[in-house]
Write a structure and sequence with these properties.
By secondary structure, the chain is mainly alpha-helical. It has 56 helices and no strands. The protein is globular, with a radius of gyration of 36 Å.
Length: 968
């Protein structure tokens, strides 16, 4: 009787063995990726433990070759689960651990491998011999580090006599330094650092010096959790999640220095973010790792829930609440975390709504404390959550959550609840505007807002005015408000209270600018916008210098400066401009002031997006009698250039750099990049941007901003890189950091100007050093640059070939041209003139010079390239003769250099040159000074002629050495 199951199993084993042997062949040939693929496919089918173990070991070997050490360790771990003493698995894991500098673990595995398989001692002993001195040295260092850790902890926590406050502070700082190394982390944890820190952080009502110590303790925790996920989990286990989350009360009872209290909360925020980054595998701004999220899901969800529950707690400070809002804002967009959906599920939106409805002046007993920044942070967070609701059902749930909260407030008959409703709607109008418009457009809400605006009560007037200002965000909404509220705003503008008056003024400014940049339509009568701008100016320059009032004045100008006349009026008003730049120094304390200042500057520079209108569509619109927007005469390029120059002279670049440092908002960074890009359009202003640190901030903006911000910052960097030496524009490490933004512009979706500027800047960087060229190759830039060498556009082709000329100095470039491709052929053909080439075709001539330079550099380094110059092209000698016989000495020098390099490579190649008419030209040029009458030449031409003659003579001597020619 035949057992079909056994027969099927045997067939499967044979198939897996066949796959294993095929993988081995790929491994031997060096195709390790394919070997890993085959091993993994076999592992998915294999049921035999012995065979599974072998496949894991083989996969580990391939990962080792690819330097994928973590993957190699995973496969070895799985093999050792099946066979704990397998020598090969232990040895391969030891090799991977050594590469990761985990020397003690590597030494342990190598020892176990030797014990498990003594006959293979010859294989294992070299690794053991290499690791033994390292391990011994590290043990000695570890012992010293442990002693140092004990000493620092005793000093930091006051366990030694006669210690001053400075001694304790120094010891705490030393603990932070110790926590930057593995040995230091292990020593600190071993001697009980976490227990000591917990005791320090539990101090209530700290004095100023104790709060300083607390800040240093929190920073040391941040350093520890950044080290690795294992350390982070250990910290969470030792201290507990509730304790870590309660650090939001770190300043509880402290009534001293406000700056120090803010520093303490910043330290806690950094710790929380570091914990989250460590648990989610998100390092240096990278996206969370799905594997890490899967492992740590429960603790990450616990952090989310705890922070959500704390949001509208009445027991925390307003600053702590802002800190939690910022943590959510920073992480809510990560799809892998999926915080947006979870946040809505656990009714976090209602907690945000509770904060948004908070009006401190109401003096409600159950009120929570908020700061001047809270409402702005809230609007940003609610917008981001709404943007993460990718389908209609989710957005309906979002609106329903807010609706439920508003209904509860509207049920109450008291006026305070109505004020809170309008306050929340204002937050929504400044955030997820679609949601805000949904509620402001509901029956009775606008009427309730207008009734409150007509009230004689200051608070009701103020809240209603802010709502009207926020509601007039779009042209269609503005018409509705104009019809119902314009007279109320005018009446409120007559108020004796400056806070009401300035808000009403902003409402009027917003409504008056609702036509945008269209000069053909004005909501108000002519001249009104200039009068409103003058009113904003008076508030901006008010003697009291009240920043909260000035902020509203700048916001009014940010709307009015869409009008060309207002732009020209403001650019002539230097006191107003300088005051606006001065108050930007309050950006850190009053984040709401940043956006209006930046928007005003964007408008003055005309750095906003402009729709390009197709001329045919324009004529069609006129024929159909549709309204056609018109640009103001003061928005012509000459006026814009003048405004940019005025702003640059009064120090706008310094202001922008400071504002960029003070914000993490991607949208604000984008606006800053627009202005800096507009300034960098002027060659003479680029040096000023570099001097004020603008290049450094542009690199940071590129990393942090949205796609539009990336484009603007990259183009600004390209413009700087075109006219400024890389060593000055991007000193030190920043030269490498500038490569990625420049390559970002080498995209077919970008404009030709952006491509061109990026190529020129990359050309300068490639000429800086070999490490810069290597960075371009590492970022896959060579292929992107080479693509533009095939462009029909002559300037793009010229810039690309010039850049490749500098890259040709790199060994990587030589390898690229030696490969099985037609790169050499293409470069030779680029040297050939077109039939209609004229002296006026400077771009074509520059391209030919650059192509000849590429060949001159490559032929000096590679015999293979020399051979291809003569073999890949149908008639190479006619092209080389055109170069060598060219009346332009720059071409002649390059041609002679290529010929010399080919002759110097070997006798066979030299023989082909000597037997051609090309060699006769070389002979003639070798005597050109002897047979030609002297001419009037420039210094450069004299040098070129001397170089040509010298290289021709060198070629003759080499041919003579080969025995191909004799002296006559």
């Amino acid at each position: 009787m035949i057992n079909l199951s056994d027969e099927k199993s045997g067939t499967m084993v044979e198939e897996i063995i066949k796959i294993k042997e095929e993988a081995n062949e790929f491994f031997k040939s060096g195709d390790h990726e394919q070997a890993i693929k085959l091993c993994n496919s076999a592992l998915g089918k294999c049921k035999d433990d012995n065979l599974t173990c072998v496949l894991h070991k083989n996969a580990a070997a391939s990962h080792l070759k690819l330097k994928e050490f973590d993957e190699a360790i995973k496969h070895c771990d799985l093999a050792l689960e099946l066979k704990p003493q397998d020598a090969k698995a232990l040895y391969r894991r030891a090799c991977a651990l050594e590469a990761l500098e985990r020397y003690e673990e590597a030494y342990r595995d190598a020892q176990r491998a030797l014990v498990s398989s003594p006959p293979d001692a010859a294989t294992f002993k070299p690794l053991l011999s290499k690791l033994l001195p390292i391990v011994e040295q590290r043990r000695q260092q570890s012992s010293q580090t442990r002693d140092k850790a004990i000493r620092m902890i005793r000093r930091a926590f006051g366990e030694e006599p006669n210690l001053s406050d400075e001694d304790i502070e120094t010891a705490l700082n030393n603990i932070i330094v110790l926590a930057r190394e593995r040995a230091g982390v292990e020593a600190l944890l071993e001697v009980g650092l976490l227990r000591k820190i917990k005791s320090l952080l539990e101090i209530k009502r700290p004095s100023k010096k104790e709060l300083k110590w607390k800040i240093l303790a929190v920073r040391s925790l941040s350093q520890l959790v950044q080290f690795d996920m294992k350390t982070c989990l250990h910290l969470g286990k030792e201290l507990g999640v509730p304790f870590v989350m309660n650090l939001q009360d770190i300043t509880y009872g402290f009534s001293g220095d406000a700056v120090l209290a803010e520093e303490a909360l910043s330290a806690v925020q950094y710790l929380w973010q570091s914990i989250l980054n460590s648990l989610s595998g998100s390092k240096k701004g990278e996206k969370p790792d799905p594997e890490c999220l899967k492992i740590n899901k429960s603790i990450i969800d616990s952090l989310l829930t705890t922070m959500t529950m704390s949001l509208n707690s009445r027991s925390i400070t307003g600053e702590a609440r802002d800190m939690i809002l910022q943590i959510f804002t920073k992480n809510i967009d990560y799809v892998n975390l999926n915080w947006a959906d979870k946040f809505v599920e656990i009714h976090g939106l209602q907690k945000l709504a509770d904060i948004g409805a908070e009006v401190p002046e109401l003096k409600i007993e159950s009120a929570m404390t908020i700061t001047p920044n809270t409402r702005g942070l809230l609007s940003v967070l609610m917008t981001r959550i709404y943007n993460n609701m990718y389908y209609d059902k989710a957005r309906e749930t979002y609106v329903a959550e807010i609706d439920d909260f508003l209904k509860e407030l509207l049920i109450s008959p008291d006026m305070d609840s109505k004020v809170r409703v309008i306050a929340l709607i204002t937050v929504l109008l400044n955030g997820p505007v679609d949601v805000g418009n949904t509620f402001i457009g509901r029956q009775g809400v606008i009427q309730m807002t207008l009734v409150m605006a007509n009230s004689e009560t200051y608070l009701e007037q103020r809240v209603a005015t802010e709502a009207i200002v926020a509601a007039a965000s779009k042209k269609d909404k503005a018409k509705s408000i104009i019809n119902d509220g314009i007279n109320i705003l005018k009446r409120l503008y007559q108020s004796k209270n400056d806070e009401i008056k300035v808000r009403a003024l902003v409402g009027l400014c917003k409504l008056g600018s609702s036509s945008g940049t269209d000069a053909s339509w004005r909501p108000f009568q002519d001249g009104s916008t200039l009068k409103l701008a003058e009113a904003c100016r008076r508030f901006l320059l008010n003697p009291a210098k009240d920043v909260s009032v000035q902020r509203w004045a700048v916001e009014g100008l940010s709307y009015l400066t869409l009008d060309g006349e207002v732009k020209e009026k403001l650019i002539e008003d230097l006191p107003a401009l300088k005051t606006m730049l001065e108050i930007s120094s309050h950006a850190e304390k009053l984040s709401e002031i940043v956006y209006p200042i930046i928007m005003t500057l964007v408008n003055l520079c005309n750095a906003y997006d402009k729709k390009e209108i197709d001329p045919e569509m324009l004529e069609l619109a006129k024929f159909a009698k549709h309204h056609v927007p018109e640009e103001h005469e003061f928005d012509d390029p000459d006026f814009v250039v003048n405004r940019v120059e005025v702003l640059a002279k009064i120090g706008v670049t310094n202001c922008l750099v400071n504002l960029a440092k003070a914000t993490e908002s991607a949208s604000v960074l984008e606006l800053i990049s627009r202005i800096l890009n507009a300034i960098c359009e002027r060659k003479e202003l680029r040096g000023m941007v570099v001097a004020h640190g603008g290049a450094r901030e542009l690199i940071r903006i590129f990393e942090k901003s949205n796609p539009q911000g990336k484009s603007n910052s990259a183009q600004a960097l390209a413009r700087i890189g075109v006219t400024t030496a890389p060593s000055i524009a991007f000193p030190g490490q920043r030269t490498y950091e500038a490569v990625k933004p420049l390559l970002y512009l080498l995209d077919m979706e970008r404009s030709g100007l952006e491509n061109f500027e990026a190529l020129l800047a990359l050309c300068n960087i490639a000429g800086e050093s070999e490490s810069c060229r290597r960075r371009i190759f590492d970022e896959k830039g060579f292929m992107m640059i080479e693509h533009y060498a095939y462009e029909k556009h002559t300037k793009l082709r010229m810039a690309a070939v010039q850049c490749m000329c500098n890259l040709a100095l790199s060994e990587e470039c030589v390898k690229a041209y030696e490969g099985e491709n037609e790169r050499v052929k293409f470069m030779v053909l680029l040297c050939a003139p077109s039939d209609d080439l004229g002296m006026e075709d400077t771009d074509e001539i520059d391209t030919m010079k650059a192509a000849a330079s590429v060949l001159a550099i490559l032929t000096s380094q590679s015999r293979k390239v020399c051979g291809r110059v003569l073999s890949d092209v149908k008639d190479p000698f006619s092209i080389l003769m055109w170069l060598v016989a060219n009346p332009m000495l720059e071409f002649q020098l390059r041609g002679v250099t290529i010929v010399l390099n080919i002759i110097k490579q070997d006798k066979d190649l030299a023989e082909r040159i000597v037997g051609s008419p090309l060699f006769e030209l070389i002979m003639v040029l070798s005597r050109q000074g002897d047979i030609e009458p002297p001419k009037e030449l420039s210094k450069e031409d004299v040098k070129n002629k001397a170089d040509i003659k010298q290289r021709c003579n060198e070629a003759l001597r080499k041919a003579e050495d080969y025995g191909l020619i004799k002296k006559s």
